[in-house]
Structure formats: structure tokens, C-alpha cells
Specification:
The chain is α+β, with helices and mostly antiparallel strands. Helices cover about 15% and strands about 30% of the residues. Among the domains are: about 210 residues, no CATH class; about 55 residues, no CATH class; about 120 residues, Immunoglobulin-like, CATH 2.60.40.10. It has 8 helices and 45 strands. The protein has a 7-stranded antiparallel β-sheet with strand order 9-8-7-6-5-4-15, covered by helices on one side. A 5-stranded antiparallel β-sheet has the order 10-11-12-13-14, with no helix packed on it. The radius of gyration is 58 Å and the shape is elongated.
Length: about 725
């Protein structure tokens, strides 16, 4: 039945509400082959009162039914506040208390101007009536037994099982819990998509305005619990009546909803609604195991119910006093149909049978369907097999060697115990860890074994589980500890300019005096201060020309430093090969030019604190105090002589002694330098270019200076 502000009662007795505007399939009947026989459609709109008011409550305003081979009938609200309009095949017929017969097996019977029924041969009846004062239609449908399990639409699936009332168009069931209808949100989804409309019987236009939908929960929150309880007393405990009053604000509308419910209950008694089986919907069983199931049924009329099994019944099945006893003997499909009856009518119920036949200790998986028969009414469930067994029912012994669990190329042998196997020996020189032949590795010198020898310094070789460690060339030891120091040998680096640096298996000669970022060359770097006799616009180029002519293949480059504007002398840095000594540069410069002097101590880099004196050295300078002692360039030669002659000596006497000590130190100060080693044959002060290349001073050989330079002792080279 459809009544009130869109309340429904399904064929199996489920009550629910669906609120929406549009055109919907209320009921569709199909034959055993699936062909459509009968369709009932309804159009919903907002409630209109006879005073012209509009209420935000959906109601059915038009209805049409079509039967194959018979035709179409339509019900509408008349223009005034009461009465119906009836159209048969789109032709209006007068609504009188008469029976209209137009075709065979069909008649229209009007009991009043507000109530007309369509009566079809075979027991199909559709009764439509109007709520007086409102544009609201209600309908009640009676369907013969031949359409059992062949109904879809908003009136639900007639199966005597409330759990599958809400059958979707895709064949899936909108499940409910504890035989209660689903939530309102899910029911809205069901109402819109349950049965698609292949063709319209009403040709209605889409709603002009959307419905302001308010859920039942929100509706009850608008009033206090006391008011709700008062409404329930007024509505005789009918919540549908309470909802309609709250949604519309019209107590009269709620009363008409209550009257429709009472009419349905009265007609149920008159027509003796058959009993309905409520549970179980699914029976879980196992082959050769007995199950005992309680069959629960309800009769709307309160009549006594009897239970029986329809033929053909499954072997080992019996039903008495509402309890089913059954022992499945195999997975051969059978159908179990239960008939529940009162004294006048009966209904049939076919539960889903799920049978398990797991062998060898397999676990039944009732949620996993392996086979389906009898249109889904007989299902064989899957099995979770223990180790060593496989197959649908775990009846096959698994050959674990089929999965090739051993190492590639190693023979696998299955054992009698399921899931167990043995592997042959690893091929060649390969070895195993743990289970023989399961995982094989190349040798013990590679991963996953830890490297057994001296890392980076030794080589490892193995045969099966034996290995040998050998030090790499350049190292000595037992292979577990390899050491070598090539720098320990005499004169590993022959030139004194180089320092030996040990590396794994070899050594490097690193430039000892290198003062440059150039790591590929080892050369001497000298500081030179030059005072030009004449103002030279490009002293750097002039000095570069002089050095290039005098030191072919020995001279690298020259750079000029900038000590400050207007400072003299000019300062340069000369880079020459490492086998060219400092004194040779000074000798050459003295002979070829009298326009400049070679003296690092005149450069600003040589800043010794007075009274310390600057003295030229090999590639640099020294700060010398008293002719013998070297001091840091930031230190002075002040010697403080402290004499403590006893407690109470006057302070002025102590100061006098300090002044006397400083005076003596100053008188004895001398400055000594490293003399330039000048050849005896040089008697001239000026020897301008072109140079005399036959001069022995310009010919030299690689040597190692025996002097101690900058506190570095050169290594002796024995020949």
C-alpha cells in the first residue's frame, strides 16, 4: 500500500517512507520468463490544500496502470476539493457507483466519487482513493499467488522474506538489519534507482521546484519529547501519523494517514493475508553433518501457523513444529521449499542453502561461493586448505616441487609429509646456507657472507666452504692483515722537493715547498722586490722578458703584488722549476741588471718588529734578533732583565736596572744575513743583454742543497 506523505507497506509487510518528487514505478509484475505483464506508476508532487496552500510534503497526485493485452487506466484528482477523474485508454469515463466494462477480463468499479478500483481477471486488484480536501491519492494492490517472487518496484519483492524486499534494478539487494528497513538515505537511493521507467504512462513534466527534504531524525528534533509523546497518543501510536503532522503542520493530514493504516489492517483481516517467513534467509550446512534450524514465521491476522516441506524434498530433511532438521549427503544441488499456512491461505519460502564439503581438515569459507545452482538457491562454498593440500574441496595432495622451491638447476624431491621436500646439492662450487640446495651462493667470498679477508688490501678465493686470503700486490701479511709502507725505503722520492705519502699498494710524491693550488706541478716560489732606476710603465712585462731569456724551460710565470699606491720597491713572485735554486736567480739578476735590487726585506711582506732585522732566506726572509736568535715577525728583541734584590727595594732602582739592560742590548745588536753566493769570475756590475750564453753561470745541473732550509732537513740520496 502507498498512503500518507509517501509511506509504503511492502508485500512482505515492511513499512518505510520515501520522500521525493517525480515519476516512479510503484509496482511491476513479470511472468516466469521475465516478461513485463503489469506496471503501476505514480507521480508525486507537493501537497496542495483546498484553500490553495502548498505544503512541503510529497504526496501521490496521479496514478496510471498498464496491463499487457488489456490497456491503460489512469486516476487523477478532480478540480474541486473532492472526487476522482478516471481515464481508460486516455478516455475519461464517468465516476459513478457502477461497474464500467469495456474489454474482456477487466472492469472499473467505483464505490464512491473518491474511490475507484481496477479489477483484472486472475485476482489482480488496484484500489485508488482520494483524501478529501487534498490533492492526495492513496493506493492498495492485491496480487495473486502466481506473481510470487515476480514483483519489483517501491512495493518490494514478494518473497515472504523481508530481508530482500528492496531489490535493485541491477539484481542486488539493499540489505537491512534485524528485518528493519535500511536508513532513509539508502532508501532514497533505492527509490530513485530501484526500477527504471522504460516509458512513461503519465507524461508528467519535471517538478518546478525541488523538495526541501528533512529527515525524520531532524524532524523529531524540532519538538520536545513531551510533544512527541502527546502526538503519539493522538495518532494511536502510529509514527507515520506523527511524522505527517510534524512535516505538514496539519493534524487532519495525520488523521487521514492513520485512517489509511486502519483500512489496510481491516482489509488484511477480510482478505486473510497469508503468514510470512521472517528467518532464516540462509541455511549453513556441511556434508554429513546434521543441522537444526528454527523457522520463524508471522501471520498478520494472528492465526495459527503450520509448517511443511514441499515436494520434492531433499533427502534426510524433515520439518516439525517450526524446526528444520537436515543432513546434506553431498554437494549435489537440491531445493528446499518451506510452506507456512494458516487455515485459509499459505505462502512458500525457499531459503538459500550453503553447503560445505571441505576435506583433509580444510576450513569452510561460507562467504566465498565456489559453485551456484538452482538460481542461487543452492550454493557450494569454498575451502581454505591446510598446507600440502589443494583443490576446490582440499582433496588434492599438493606436489610442492611443482613450484620449484629449490635453487635453479637443483633437484627437488617431495617427502611423504605434505609440504615437506628436500633439495640436492648446490651445483659446482656453489654453497648453501641452512637448507641444502634451497638457496645457493657463488662462494664464501661474496654476499651474503661477510668478507673474511683484509678489506681493500687482500684477495679472497674459495672452494665450497674453504677459502684463502692473499694480500694484494704491494702488501704483505697473512691475508687477514696486510700492511706496507713504501715510504720507509730510502729515497722513494728522489728530489728533496718532494715528500713521500703512502697509499694502498703504492705511494705518492707530494711537493714539499709548494705554495700554490696547482697540484700537478712542483716548483719554487720566490719573493722579489725591485726598485726600477727609471719609472717603468710596465715593470711586470719587462721583468718577465728578462727571466724568459735567462731561464728557458725553467721559468714558469711571474705575478705582481699590490702593497699600496705609491709604494716602492715593486714586489713580485717568481715561479721556477723545483731544481732551480734561489741563489741562482739572484746571481743572474745581479749580473744582468743594475736598475733594480733583489731584496725580499725591502718588500712590505717582510714586516719585522723593530729592533729585529730582516734577513733574506731561501725563498723568503727571517726576522733575526742580536744576529743569532730568530723571532716571529710580530715579536720584538726587548729583553727584560728583572732583578729581585729583596723585599722593599725602591721601585725607581728596578726601573733603572731595566733601562740599563736595554741600553746594553742595543749596543751589542748586529745583523747578519745569508751571503749571496757569487761566482769569482764576476767582476762587472753590469752585463746587459744580449746575454753571454757561454757563461758557466747560465749552465747548471740538478742538485740537492745540503743546507737546512726553513727548519726542513732534506732526505739524503745514496747513489
Amino acid at each position: 500500500m502507498v498512503y500518507g506523505s509517501l509511506h509504503f507497506i511492502t508485500f512482505d509487510g515492511t513499512e518505510y517512507s520515501f520522500k521525493a518528487l517525480g515519476e516512479f514505478v510503484i509496482l511491476r509484475l513479470s511472468s516466469a520468463t521475465g516478461s513485463n505483464i503489469f506496471t503501476l506508476q505514480g507521480q508525486t508532487d507537493k501537497l496542495h490544500t483546498d484553500t490553495g496552500g502548498i505544503v512541503e510534503s510529497p504526496v501521490v497526485v496521479r496514478m496510471a496502470a498498464f496491463h499487457q493485452g488489456i490497456g491503460k487506466i489512469e486516476w487523477r484528482c478532480a478540480g474541486n476539493s473532492s472526487g476522482l477523474q478516471v481515464f481508460v485508454d486516455d478516455v475519461e469515463v464517468p465516476v459513478t457507483v457502477v461497474v464500467h466494462r469495456d474489454v474482456k477480463d477487466f472492469a472499473v468499479r467505483c464505490l464512491s466519487v473518491n474511490r475507484c478500483a481496477a479489477v483484472y481477471a486472475g485476482g489482480l486488484h488496484v484500489v485508488v482513493w482520494r483524501s478529501e480536501g487534498y490533492n492526495q491519492l492513496m493506493v492498495m494492490v492485491e496480487v495473486p499467488q502466481t506473481y510470487y517472487n515476480h514483483t519489483v518496484g517501491l512495493m518490494g519483492l514478494w518473497s515472504s522474506n523481508r530481508s530482500d524486499d528492496f531489490l535493485m534494478s541491477n539484481g542486488k539487494v539493499l540489505l537491512s538489519e534485524d528485518l528493519n528497513p535500511p536508513s532513509e538515505e539508502r532508501l532514497r537511493q533505492f527509490g530513485w534507482t530501484a526500477v527504471p521507467v522504460p516509458e512513461s504512462l503519465l507524461f508528467s513534466s519535471p517538478p518546478r521546484e525541488a523538495l526541501e527534504y528533512v529527515s525524520t531524525e531532524k524532524l523529531l528534533e524540532t519538538v520536545s519529547p513531551t510533544e512527541v509523546e502527546e502526538l503519539r497518543r493522538t495518532c494511536e501510536r502510529s509514527m507515520q501519523c506523527v511524522f505527517d503532522i510534524l512535516a505538514s503542520g496539519l493534524a487532519d493530514l495525520g488523521q487521514k494517514t492513520l485512517d489509511a493504516q486502519k483500512l489496510f489492517e481491516k482489509l488484511s483481516l477480510i482478505y486473510n493475508t497469508p503468514p510470512i517467513v521472517t528467518e532464516p534467509t540462509v541455511i549453513y550446512s556441511k556434508v554429513n553433518s546434521e543441522v537444526n534450524i528454527h523457522i520463524v514465521a508471522q501471520d498478520p491476522n494472528g492465526d495459527n501457523i503450520s509448517y511443511s516441506l514441499r515436494l520434492p524434498r531433499p533427502p534426510q530433511a524433515s520439518l516439525g513444529s517450526g524446526y528444520l532438521t537436515w543432513t546434506p549427503l553431498s554437494t549435489q544441488p537440491v531445493q528446499l521449499t518451506i510452506q507456512v499456512s494458516d487455515k485459509l491461505t499459505s505462502s512458500l519460502f525457499t531459503p538459500i542453502l550453503r553447503v560445505c564439503n571441505c576435506l583433509n581438515g580444510g576450513t569452510c569459507q561460507y562467504d566465498s561461493i565456489a559453485e551456484s545452482h538452482q538460481q542461487g538457491k543452492f550454493q557450494v562454498v569454498g575451502c581454505l586448505c591446510p598446507k600440502g593440500f589443494s583443490g576446490t574441496f582440499c582433496g588434492n595432495t599438493t606436489d610442492i616441487c611443482r613450484g620449484k622451491p629449490c635453487f635453479r638447476g637443483v633437484q627437488c624431491q617431495s617427502e611423504s609429509e605434505p609440504g615437506h621436500f628436500t633439495c640436492g646439492a648446490c651445483p659446482g662450487t656453489a654453497i648453501s646456507i641452512g637448507k641444502e640446495g634451497y638457496k645457493c651462493f657463488k662462494h664464501m667470498c661474496s654476499s651474503p657472507f661477510p668478507f673474511p679477508c683484509h678489506k681493500d688490501y687482500a684477495k679472497c678465493s674459495s672452494t665450497k666452504y674453504n677459502y684463502t686470503c692473499t694480500c694484494k700486490p704491494g702488501f704483505t701479511g697473512d691475508g687477514h692483515n696486510c700492511t706496507i709502507d713504501e715510504c720507509a725505503a730510502l729515497m722513494a722520492c728522489e728530489n728533496a722537493k718532494y715528500e713521500c705519502k703512502n697509499t694502498p699498494g703504492s705511494f705518492e710524491c707530494v711537493c714539499r715547498y709548494q705554495i700554490t693550488k696547482d697540484t700537478k706541478r712542483c716548483y719554487n716560489l720566490f719573493n722579489v722586490s725591485v726598485t726600477w732606476s727609471e719609472n717603468s710603465a710596465d715593470g711586470l712585462k719587462q721583468l718577465d722578458d728578462v727571466l724568459r731569456k735567462g731561464f728557458e724551460n725553467k721559468y714558469y710565470n711571474i705575478t705582481k703584488t699590490d702593497p699600496g699606491q705609491g709604494s716602492r720597491p715593486d714586489e713580485y713572485r717568481i715561479a721556477v722549476s723545483s731544481d732551480t735554486p734561489h741563489w741562482y736567480i739572484m746571481d743572474y739578476m745581479t749580473r744582468v741588471s743594475s736598475n733594480y735590487g733583489l731584496d725580499e726585506c725591502k718588500a712590505k711582506e717582510a714586516a719585522c718588529v723593530h729592533p729585529a732585522q730582516c734577513t733574506n732566506t731561501y725563498g723568503g726572509h727571517r726576522c733575526v734578533c742580536n744576529g743569532t736568535a730568530d723571532v716571529d715577525k710580530t715579536q720584538s728583541c726587548l729583553i727584560v732583565l728583572g732583578l729581585v734584590l729583596g723585599i722593599g727595594i725602591p721601585l725607581f732602582l728596578l726601573l733603572l736596572l731595566v733601562v740599563l739592560a736595554c741600553f746594553c742590548c742595543y749596543c751589542k745588536r748586529t745583523v747578519t744575513g745569508l751571503p749571496h753566493l757569487m761566482p769569482d769570475y764576476i767582476n762587472e756590475q753590469y752585463n746587459p743583454p744580449p746575454f753571454n750564453y757561454s757563461d758557466p753561470a747560465l749552465h747548471y745541473m740538478t742538485h740537492s742543497s745540503p743546507r737546512i732550509i726553513d727548519n726542513i732537513t732534506p732526505r739524503h740520496h745514496y747513489r
